[in-house]
Structure formats: structure tokens, C-alpha cells
Batch of 3 targets.
Target 1
Amino acid sequence: MPDLLLELFSEEIPARMQAKAADDLRRLVTEKLVAEGLVYEGAKAFATPRRLALTVHGIPARQPDLKTERRGPKVGAPDAAVQGFLKATGLKSLDEAKIQRDPKGDFYIGLIEKPGRAAIDVLAEILPVIIRTFPWPKSMRWGARSAKPGSLSWVRPLHAITATFGLETEEPDVVKFEVDGIEAGQTTYGHRFLAPSSISVRRFEDYEAKLLDAKVVLDPERRKDAILTDAKQLAFAQGFELVEDQALLDEVSGLVEWPVVLMGSFEQEFLKTPDEVIRATIRNNQKCFVVRDPKTGRLTNKFVLTANIEATDGGKVIVSGNERVIRARLSDAKFFYETDLKTRLEDRLPKFEQIVFHEKLGTQAKRIKRIERLAAWIAEFIEPQLKIGARFYEGNSAQYANDVEQAARLAKADLLTEVVGEFPEVQGLMGKYYALAQGERASVAAACEEHYKPQGPADRVPTDPVSVAVALADKIDTVVGFWGHDEKPTGSKDPFALRRAALGIIRILVSNDIKLPLLKSIDVAWLGYALNEAGVIGEAEHFSNDLLAFFADRLKVQLREQGARHDLVDAVFALGGQDDLLMIVRRVEALGKFLESDDGKNLLAGTKRASNILSIEEKKDKRTFDGAPDASLYSLAEEKALAAAIEQVKAEAGAAVAREDFAAAMSAMAKLRPPVDAFFDKVRVNDDDAKVRENRLKLLNEIRSATRAVADFSKIQD
């Protein structure tokens, strides 16, 4: 079957737009083909700095013939209705129509046969529409035609359109259409400088090969591989190691059609600036990679750039130009860094009085005060649980409290420094460097960086006890503040990243085995707003349960990503009063293991059977069967055995849960399985004696009650 080759050749396509534009082109064309009945075999799109290209193979040569039935007027309808029906269906007379019987009467049915068109004609119709309506984030008009209504809007001036269609074994045809005076043809162009002449192409294989000869690597992945391989080899040849950067690699590959990797250098004195600042400077300003010494792990005074040309001088002028710019930028960065070191972090804090964090949450100064209070409360609460803290503080609670207070006070101060103002991505990290430079304790400095963590699922979780307290305080204050002021996430929108903050809180608590009551934490955090703002009225009670449910949803996401079942989270949360996330996770883990066993599966089945019977009978009697069963009404051994087992399991499971030994609680629950199985096998619940029936239903309710020591089994899916 025939293939389509389409190329849209323009002045420039910004690197950040290329991947999406290629995907949009593939999607728009293939969706339209399918809608026209032209089901294809495969499609792939490509992008370079000057072109979007698409190949679609296995397209039928023609659309299938279309046969549809159209219902017309009733038999005996007025002549005007009949004539309209004949015109719409193309029938010559009613003799060519069928009659369909219907409860409302007999109706004429017309069969409309629409022969399929040649696929090339369909393409000539759909491609110009797609080009004219292409969804660029930003576009422009140009030239004399731009003054005319309906002129083409494109990301940059569009120069040529290549569109061919045909079988591999035959000479393809040009898809005939034009857009804004640009006629589709078989002509494209090579590299802007190395091979700027026109190229005549036929189909995709021919097109890709001729572009390669003309110094254009069409496939972005191939360009990335070439850049990365050459850069690593160039660094290795000099005994260094490339600092890989996927985001930068993606961007650089979108800036060149013929990548040529070169190495430059800068003065050693700039290495006195922190590595991260050097990297940010070189990366942001010149889109270059940095190089490190594998022995020390520190950056060297080398960088790797990617040119878009094979220069006759081997790239000396290109390297020299980049060195000149990088030298100037590093000089600025060094000046910023050295200037920052002259002012202590605490001396910057008064400026926060004039900086609003959010109109509803007050200034940054007020925010810092809230974080200080909350971090102090959290530190006092979690200190006995932090085993790692013993290595740092050896039981010195006063020192730990002082460090938490100082870290919370200084953690945001680097936001006012010159370096962070220039490179926001190093916030926190520069706080650590500046804190160490002014003699702060190691844990205080670490918290300046780590209180932002984790910033995503792949980011590490802080473990330093000071960092843990300040990170929790920062995130809890943010979530509670926005939630309490009715700035909640809605649908896919989460402008203040509250979902990420909640997941960060969960990961910190679980990873560090910390028990922290969320409801109490919410109250303490909201009190911080009440102290800062006279306008805050009322307790956190009006939104705390809603916020707790939000954390439950985030916990489900976290556990689901780890392979746990979300229904088990529901089963544990359904018990009510569950706001210790660590305990919930441990209980879910134990419940999951229990339900994988035969005892767990069978007990779940028995418990659900009991619940189903109870639901039916409660609905029938319009009452519940609460209260202790009457032991004197037990007439069967299975009743007595079940009652005894329930009492034993309640005591053992309750005690195990109280000491947070959930594995032991599950082992106790397993003892219910044999008597439950025997009860349902031998006992008739709906006995003819009303008192016996009621008593047995109360016994079933006791099963449900006993299992609720660990979870609400009714929430668990079979």
C-alpha cells in the first residue's frame, strides 16, 4: 500500500516546541486519515530546527465505498416531503426506495451509495487544513501576504512543503495543494550552511538518506545519541567525565541539525565558586555541558559545547567565542557569590517583611515565623522517635531544639541573595553553602537545602533530624494555609503544588518511621495563622477532616505506586480517627500480607457473607442487631465455638493493635477462620424461633465488630 511523505520546511522551530509539534503533526494527520476511512499501518514524525517531517505507511490507495441508509417520510406523505427525500438521497423515484415497517407506520428508506475517493485526493483536501490550523503555542505572519485576511500563521516563515504519495516500487505522485502561495512539491533543502542547495526527494527512505548527505540528521534521537557519545568520548580522552544532563541534551539536540561536539575551557580561579553555580551559569547562558574530575568529583575548568557546523578551522573560532561569553558570565557569578558572602543570612531577614508570599497567607516574614513555631512543636514530638538523632545529638534535646529553631529561621534567607536571584534553581543549596560559610552547624546548613525535599517521586527524602522537622513544618504550613483559605486543588489544577507537598509529607514520615498525628499537626499549623492574622477566626475543625481525606487520597497514590491496593487504604481509613500515616501504612502492609494467605482470603469471604446477611436482614427488619448475644440461647457447638473465638480474638487483636504489632493482630484474626467456616457450614441463621434468629444475627454482627479491630472488611474488594 502507498506511503505518505510530508515535510514542512521553515525558517526556525524553537527547540522547546519541536517534540510537541512533531507529535501534533502525527496525531492530526493520522486522526483525519482514520476519520476518512483510510486506516494506515504506521506513522512516525520527526523535527529539526528547520523542519517538521512525517511518514505514514500502509495507507489504502482509495477510501472504501460507503453505503448508508436514510430514513424518509411516511408512505403517503405530502409530495413536498417525498421530493425532498428523493433529492437528498439521489434516487430517481420512490420505486428505488425500500419500505420499512414501523409501529408508527411504513416509511421509505433510501440506500445512498457514496464511492470512495482516491487517497491522494483526500490528502490534498485535509493537509492544507491541518497546516493552516496547526496548534503552535506562538505563531507569526510575514511578508506582503500577511496583510491579507486569512494569511498563514506559522511559528516562523514557512518556505517549502514536500508532500509525496505512492508505492515503494513506483515513482510517487505529488499531493497537489497550496498554502498561502506555497505549493506542495518534492523539493526540500539541506543544512543552512553546509549544504543549502535544493534537494529533490521521492519517498521517506530517499528523503532521509539525501538529508543525511546534505548534513541534516533528521531523527532527534539519533542527534541526541551522537551528541552524548561524542561528548563523553571527548571528556574521557582528557581524563575527565561528562556531567550528563538529559534536559540540556534534549534542548541542545533541538538547536542543531548536524551536531559537532567541541571542548572549551575557562580560568581556574572560577572554580572557587560552587560547582552548582558554575554549572547553572554555563548551562543557562550557553547551553553547554560541564566536566568533572572523576577522582575528586569536582568540576574542572572545561566545558563541552555543540556546534551546528563543521568549521574549516576545526572549531577554534566557535570555541573561542563561547569561552569569551562563559568567562564573562562566570565573572558575574563569582561576583554575585562573593558579594552574597559579605552579608549574613539573618541580616537579610528584615526584607521579608516587605515581600508577600501570598495575598491570603501574608508576608514571607510571617510565613517564616509560622514555620519556626511549627518546626519547634514537631521537633519536640518526633525527637524520641528519631534514632538517627542519637548520632548527632546524643540525647542533647536542647541542642536539637536550638538547631531546629535556627534552621527554620534561616532556611528561606537565600531567596534574597544575588546568586539565587540569578539562578532560582539553586535555592536551598546556596542557603547551605552560605550557612556553612558563616559558621552554622552542619545540621542547620543541611536543613537550608533539604527542607525543600522531596520535590518529586525521584527526589531523595531528608533524614537529618533537623531537616526532617523543618521540611515537615514547611510543607504542613503550606498545605494547611492554602487549604484553610480555600485555595484547594481542583481537577488537574494544582497551582500551589499541594499534592506534591502532601506526598512529600507522607514520604518523610514513612521513610523515617515517624509517628505524627495529622489532625493535631493541622491544628498547630492553623494556630500559627491565627497568631499572625487577626482575621483568622475559628478552629481548623471546619476543614481538617476534608484535609485528612486529601492526605488519604495522596497516600493511596503513593501506596498504589508501590504496588499496594487502594481498597486496603480505604478499609483502614474507614475505621475513623486514623490520622497517623505511618500506622496506616504499617496496618495496610500487614493487612495485604494477611489477605494473601488462605486464612485471610477465607476470613474475608466469611466476613463478607456475614455482612451481606446482616444487611439483608437489617433492611427487612428495619433495625440493627447491635448488642451482645445471649449465651443461654446458643444451642449448637458451632455457635459456642464462634462466640468463644470472637472474645479471644477481640482481646488478642486489640492488644496487638494497641502496641502497634499489626502482624500479631493479623495472626489473631486468623483464629476466626475455622469457627466462622464451621458456623456457616452447620448453623441456620434465620431460625424459625425469632429469639434464636436475632441472637445469631447479633453473633454475625460480632464477627464484623471483631474484624474492625484491624480494618473495615466491607471496604475490601474480593
Note: The chain has a mean pLDDT of 92.
Target 2
Amino acid sequence: MKRIKSKLLLLLLLLPFCVFAQSTISGVVLENGSKQPIPGVNIKVAGANISASTDFDGKFQLSGVKSDSKLVFSFTGYVTQTIAVGTQKNISVYLEEDTNQLKEVVVQVGYGSVKKKDATGTVTALSTKDFNKGNNITTENLFSGRVAGLTVNSTGAPGSSSQIRIRGGSSLFASNDPLIVIDGLPLDNTTNTGSSSFLASLNPATVESITVLKDASASAIYGSRASNGVIIITTKKGSKTLSVDYNVQYAAGTLTKTVDVFSADEFRSVIADRRSDDLNKLGTANTDWQKAIYRNTGTIDQSLAVRGNLFNIIPTSLTLGNTDQQGLRLTNNFKRNTVGLVMNPTFLDNHLKMRLSANYTDEKNRFTDAVEGAAIGFDPTQPIKVEGAPYGGYFEYTTGVDSNGNYPLVSTATRNPVSQLLNTNDRGTNDRIFGNFEIDYKFHFFPALRAVVNVGYDESNGERRRLVGADAGSAPSNNNIPYGTDEYTEATRKNKLLDGYLVYNKTFSALNFELTGGYSYQKFQSSKFETGNILNPDLPSTFPETTLDTDVVLIGFFARTNLNFRDKYLLTLSYRRDGSSRFEEANRWGNFPSADLCMEDQRRFL
């Protein structure tokens, strides 16, 4: 009897631990209407320091969750949902759009703006409170993982461009990039010489909101260029009250993982077992070539923003930025100095609104070659440097000294990746100025009608010089004897814009009617001067060479109407006729119509 009581007591003591046992919870978060996955949803265990976020497929996993815990799912624009764990191991969560937030949020659409609740197309709007926090060097870092259906894949190099895709790719041979519009100025997404990215020139600290237009209904107003979606970026406006903000961030990075390869001792063992005759070709060093090509990194990003009312009539915002980012590869570096100015005064009792947006960027880069393949395959028994050896003392595979005293390289051998980085000086600079001036006038004699004129300009001047010494094993060679590299390129790109349109907005009893119609003209110009490798004894006679590209002109006529009946039925019709100088005259024009009809619950049925 005493033994039975002891067992019962032990069972009672263990019962709480069984009830509140910890486990791993996984699941997926979907949008209730479309059943599409939502990446970037925040998941937190109530009352505990355990959290996670969903990946691109809307999936998540949490460890150490007790059965009596509650999970809180939150995402901008959606109703926060709390779910009790209980015995569940896999959870499917469907988030509803927050209609209260939708009523307040104003989103940018092509040539205008609407309240989120009145938007018929698939539109996602992010403000500063929704942006990713932390070390955001380029603008795409702000919204990576924050918008369902939008992916941002970065190369990892400092200041480098990212591959941005809205609902995947749609073209096999043409571009799959979305159209980027900054303050009404559509950008050319070509990265200029000397720059790391066409978006690197925009200081993320100046961005106020980002709107993503995903479907044809939302983006058709931009015509042919909007087939892959549109990302509209709006910079911060001036303020009537004086404020000064200084922000500085420091970030440090280190290599956390490498490709699993043989160590020097393991490599020697493999050669001894399988090719013992080649043991004499191995060295005595123990080199981890992957770690040798990398370094610990540091990044400092500073911004100073001054906002106030200039002369008591011109709300003004001035932002100065400085960024210095080291890359993980030994010599990779990105530096940027920016100046952003926005003036947005209003006159004539708010009938006349003006906005001047101007940005200047001085960008400096030191580029590096991709040497990871060489680092993975290089012999770990060989040292990085050998005292008195040719090629600047760096170890290279040679055939021995020839009759002329040279050390020809083994043509099939991999080159020393550390030498390739340190002996290559590949630098670029890019100066860019872009912005626009917009006038918005509401007629005094006809207040329902507005006239908008927008003039934009974008010019970048870049240059790049690549120097590789003859001592570098990676230098070009004539008869397998390196002779070095000296290449120089400079390029200029210009983008000019003129938009003019009328907006008529009137409410008739239960019907709100808005009609927009206008004209757009945009011209792209580019030229390039390049020398080629002037150290090449076989350099073609065509160098130096100047290339003046044919101007590209885009002309568009567009119209859009928004009908809102009793805040219940929403109809959007849009049409654009685009003409491009890229095509012959007989096939120069294309038509881009769209229609979207929604009910109050935002479920599209046409």
C-alpha cells in the first residue's frame, strides 16, 4: 500500500510537467480572401520572449512553446489574431484585412492617390512604421519580406542591387523587373558605370512611403512598363514646424558558414589512399581558403534631417546622409554621400500646390571578382604566400622557369583567390542628380477640376577603372605570360520626363465620380567611352571607343475613372495608349485597358 501511495505522489508531481510540456509548433499564414501566403507576419508567444516571422511561403516554426501558450499573429493592414496552442502541432491561420485601417490609409496609384478602402486593384501600402528596422543600406531593404507576393533577393555585396519580383517572373527573354517610380518620376532600371545599383542613389532615410501595385488593374495606367508590377516610392515632405533628427547606426558582420570541404590533413589522406604518386605535389600548409578571402565587416550609416518652414511659407525638408559599408570579401567596399531636398508650399488658399524634390548622390565603389569557386577548389595544403616566389610572393601553379626567366602558369590550374582579390584594384564612382517639380492647381471657378504638371530629370555620370598588376596570377596573358590589366570606362545616362493631366472629382448624391486623363513624354539618353585593356599587346585598333546610343522616347496617353456608389460598389476603368521609338512606325503603338469591379468586402468578382 505504501508503494502505491509513493507512485501516486510521483505521478501527481510529474503531471504539471506533462500538461505544460514544451513542443515545436509549425504552420502557415494565409490571406483570408485570396488564400495567398503572407511573408513577414510577426508571430509572438504571449507573455514569453519567443517570436518568429513567416518566410516567403507564409510558413513559420516556433520551438519551446508550451501547450497552454497563446500565439499572437500580427501584420500591417490585417486584424491581429490570437490562437491558443493546446495540442496542436501544425496551425493554419487566415488573416483578415483591417477595414478600420483601410479607411485611413491613403495609397499612391498611377497619377494620383486613393484611400485604401477605395482601391480596387491589388495594392499594398507601407509607411515608415511598417518598414524593416535595422541596417537598411538600400531602399529595397525597407520592404523585403513585408509585402505578400513580392520577393527581394540580394547578392550580398555592399550597396548591390537586388532581384525584385512581384508574383514571380512572366518573361523568358525580356526583363522581369517591376517599374520603379520615385515622386512621380519613372526610373530607368539600368545601373550606370561605376555604380553598384540604380537604386543605391536613393537614401532610405528620405523614404516616407512605398506602394506596390501588383495586378493589371492597378498598374495598367503605366502601360507596357508595368507588366511586372509597379513600386511607387514617395520621399518625406517638408514640415511647418522645426525638427532636427540625427540617426547613426553601426553594424558588424562575420562569416558564419562555409562550404564543407576537405581540410589539409583530410586532403593529404585522400591523396595518399588514392593517388600516392602525387603526394610530392602537395604542400605542408594548412590553409582554409574560404576564410582567407573573407574578413569581419563594419558598416556605419548616418543621416541628418532638418525640417521646417522656410520664410514661414515653404515647408522644407533637407536630409544629409553618409554611408560606409565594408563587404565580406577582402577588398569590397561601398561609400555614399547623399543630399535630399523637398519643398512643398501651398498658395491661393490651398488651390495651388507645388512640390520640388531633388536628390544628389556621390557614390564610390570598390568592386571584387567572384572568387568563391576558386577558394572552394584550391589545394588546402598550399600556403597563401611563399617567400621569394614569383607573382608577388603569392603561391601559383607554374610549369617552372622557362628560358626567358619567366614562370608560365599552368593553364588548367585555379588561380590563387587571395592574390586575385588583393592584386585587383577595380574602382568606380557615380555622381547622380534626380528629382522633379510638380504643380497641382485646383481651378477657382471650377473646384472639381484640377490640373497637374510634373517635370522630372535624372542624370548620372559614372566612371570605372580596373587595374590588375602583371604579378597577379589572374592577370590576362599573352603566350601564358601575364601582362596586367588597365581598363577605363565612363558613361552618362539621362532621363527626362513631362507629365500633364487633368483630374475631375465630383460627388453626385450617393455616387462619387473621379476621372483622370493626360499625356506623358519620357526620353532616355546614354553614351559611353571605353579604352579596353591598354596593356594588351593585341588590343583591337577600335579602342578607345565612344558609343552614343540612340535616344529612346516613350509617349503615352492615359485615362482612368473611379466610381464609388454608396461606398459599397467600386468600379475602376483605365486605359493607356503607349508609343515607343524602339519599334518601327507600323508597330510603334500598343493599347493597355483594364477594368476592376469590387464590393465593399474587397472581394473581386470581375
Note: The mean pLDDT is 86.
Target 3
Amino acid sequence: MPGYNLVDEPWLTVRPADGGAPLELGIAELLARAHELEGIAVEFSSQLPAVLRQVLLPVVAHATGAPRTLREKGERLARDGGGFTEDELRAIRTYLDGNRARFDLFDERDPFGQVAGLRTAKDETKGAAALVATAASGNNVPLFASRTDADPLDLTPAQAAHWLVHAHCWDTAAIKTGVVGDDQVKAGKTTGNPTGPLGQLGVIVPMGRTLYETLLLNLPVTPTSAEGIPQWLRGPHSPAWKPRGAESLLDLWTWQARRIRLIPHEDETGRLKVARVVISAGDRLTPMFEREPHTAWTFTAPAKKSASVRPERRPRRHTQGKAAWRGLEALLSATRQGPEGAFETSVLLDEISGLWEIGSLDADYPLQVETFGMVYGTQSAVVEDVIHDSIPLSLLALRQDSEAHDLLLDVAEQAEQLARAVNNLSADLRRAAGTDPIPWDKGQRPGELLLHVLDPLVRRLLAGVRGAGGDEDVLHRGRLAWEQVAHRRAREAADALLLAAPASTFGGRSVEQPGKAGKKLTYSLGTAGANFRRQLDEILPRYADVRKQVAAARLAETGPDYDFEADPGVDFDH
């Protein structure tokens, strides 16, 4: 059976920085041309961090060394030519040539990311769909799947390589097939398997202007002793596995969360395909690596309060259905106390802030932050949803003492408050009509629809703040423009609710307050609308102040017939 070496075979699709047609490259050529490429294109979004962590970042770090200091990282980012030096490229080529056999996907002795000869007691195999998160396989049946578990799935070697590293990072939990050589197998299976390591994180990946910059931005400052070795230098792997902690950064990045064997065959045209696989239990990461660079952190209070017990530090996971900007309080905080507890941003974003401070990156550097997460269901044994988002982020906003930082946090909180205000209006109108409010965990509440409408406005603001480069006048005008448009969209959402309210809400309804005998609250369309307008002015105070100033001037011009509430408002240049 012919081999398929990831060093040379064109298994990675990339986008040229000049906007040309996509290219397909192997590891060696991709790294040699990293400064000419915008980034990697993948079939499934969560494959991107898997390819970076399992392959590209470890190769670069082990061949050229991770940056030892923040200043060294900055110098490598800011150098002329925007790519690897000739010495670094020579080191990468030497490294790949010296370890070429270890990158062969179908090597008989030590196939990349796999265990040679891995088999069950009865030599059973599974269809390649077991490797693919989006394919129907066993209990993992995506909603509206176009194929069933019985349909054969032939993967090209390139596709198999992507799904192989994806499984090591994101695979589902629960029962795994027992294999020969695993002394922890019981009744032909292993139980208690956790998800892949990235499935336990809210993954954060900073992106630069080129693939070279992205690689450097994702290489944390690492002392030589902490760098370690990748999995391909630990092999050949055996079917046996154990719970253990990651020994180093490269051990973490190339973690073998599963024992896998791809079974290749040649189709009728002689092309190499993968239709059958063996997947079993792999090493269990315990505890979480303290310096995991691709996540933010949450500190939670211990169950039993004690001066000697420190808050627990846990990876902060992304929330299904929430845009990345709705979690800015964690992304922008070296350490910050919030309503849900204390937060700490990722190591990488903290270092990017430091790179601006030492002058290695400009204030208007076009940083893009991509977030990834996996939503599992039924004891984490199936994939229910994949979380992926991308937002522009200002480097200045990563500093807690900057105007940009305060502005972005304020805008994110204002959007949430506007959604709550619309939900409160809906609840008051429903009470006035004699019905109960929509439960927070059931149905589609109107505040969520407003957040959907505000989403492109917030993203436009994020890009504007990034491009402002700290210009306080631009930031001030941007804040006012945001409040004006947000006010307009919130009023439109409220008007839709008020217009749909039944006639009975005009008279209203009195409701006894819980726990306060004899005391009643009256809900009506008029009071609901007045309360909403008051909340609107409290949430968007700058626009409210300007609007009142303009209204006072117009009142002086037009006299007592001026209708403040009917005024369309103030237009800003945005």
C-alpha cells in the first residue's frame, strides 16, 4: 500500500494573501510560503484549531524554538519580509526531512497520529463516519443528516488526516471500542472516556494578516524547559493508555486523546481512500494544563468558604447561540471581576497586549479573534452543535486602562440591557393582557431578536474601534453613533410589541404582589411603554442627553406644540 506523507502531499487548502485562487500544499511548502498566505481553509470550522495545534504549531515550535521572551516574539513578528528567516526555513526543512517517516499517514510501523496494527479481539472495524463529527455514526446522528450509518463513507487521505487530528482534539465521550493490548478493557469496551481536550474549552485563536503572523501570535512565550516534545517523537504508540497530566506545551498540543488506526484501500480507479477505521480510548488529560494558551478562564468560589481555599480556575466555555462579542468581559480582562465571577483572558491575548506596549504591533493592527467550541449531548456521546465566530478586536481594548476597553465593554453590556428591557416590556404587556410572561428558558423572547438585529452594528463598531488606533475623538463619535442606532432599533422592537398588544391592555390589569397582602401593581400599555422609555434613557445615557439638549433647542424654536416623543432624534455621522 503506498504511503501518504503530510510533509509533501497537498492535504492543506490555503488562501493566498493576494486574493488568488486557493492552493493545496503540504506542510513544508505551506511553512515556506506562510508569509504569502492569508490562512488555512477547512471543510469544518473546528478542524482549524486541530490542524494548528496537532501539526503546524508544534512543527514550528520544535524546529525553530518557541519565543523565549515577549521581545523576541515581537522581533519575529516585526521583521522585514514578514516571514521565516533563511536560518529558520533551513531549520524547518532539516526538521521535516529528519522526521519525514513520522508524518506518513499510512506508515506500517508508526503511522502519523495512530497506532500501527490497532485491532479488536474480533478484528472488527467501523466505517470512516465514526471519525467524522458531522456524519451519522452509531448514536451520533446529526439532525437532518443526509446519510445513515449504513451508507459507506470514503475519505480521501487529506480528509482522513483532517478528521484524524480533529478526533484527537474534539472526539465525543462515553464508551469506546476495546482493543487488544489495552489492559483496561472490560466486556470488549472502555467506559468513562472524556471528550477530546478542546471539547472542554472555549477555544480562542488570534489571527494575523498572514498565516506566518497567525502562527507567531499563537506561539506563547515558552521557556526551553517547558517546550517538550510532540507525539510523533514519542512513538510508536501502544494500544495501552493512562490518565496523566501534560508534561509540556508540545505534549499538550499533540495530545493523543484516542488510539486510532486508519485502514486505507485503493478504489476502482487506483486512488487511495479510507473507508474503515478503529477508534479506541486514548490518554486522559488530568488535570487541565495550567498554561493552556487557547482559552480564557473563570474563577469560581469553592463550595466551602475558607480563607485557605483558593477559587477554582476553570476554562471558560463559549455559550451556544451567543455571539463572541457577548463574552468580551473575559476576552478583554487580564483579571476582572464580573457579575458571574472573576475572569482571566487567554495567555495569547495577554501577550498581544504586551506586544503593543513594547511597540512590536501598531495600535490599529487588524487583529481578528476566532472562537470555537463544541456542544455535546446525551452524556457527551453525541455532537449537537459547533460554535464558531470571528470578531475584529482592538489591541488597545486589551488594556484595562484604555478608552477602547471601556467602550467595548459598555457597548456589550448595553446590548444585553436593551434585550432585557425589551423582554421586560413584553412581560408587562402580557401581564396587562392577563397572561404570564414568556419563561426565560422556553420560547423565543423578543430580546433575543433584538440582539440579532444589533449584532452587525456591534461588529461594525468593533472594526471601527480597531481602526481608530486610540483616537479618542473617533471613539467618542463612534459611541454616540452606536447609542443612536441602538436606540432606534430598540424603539422599533418595542413599537412592534406595542402595536401587537390587544385592546384590553389599554385599561390594564391589577396584580397582587407576591408576599405583600393587599398591595397591587397595575400593568397597562401606557405604564409598560413609559417604563421602557425610562429604561432606554438609562441604558443609553449619552444619546439621551444629546437628544434632550436638541429637544430643548427645538422646543425654544417651535413653542409648546413640540412633541418630544415624536421627534425622530439626532443624526450623527457614522
Note: Residues 155 and 274 are 5 Å apart (CA to CA).
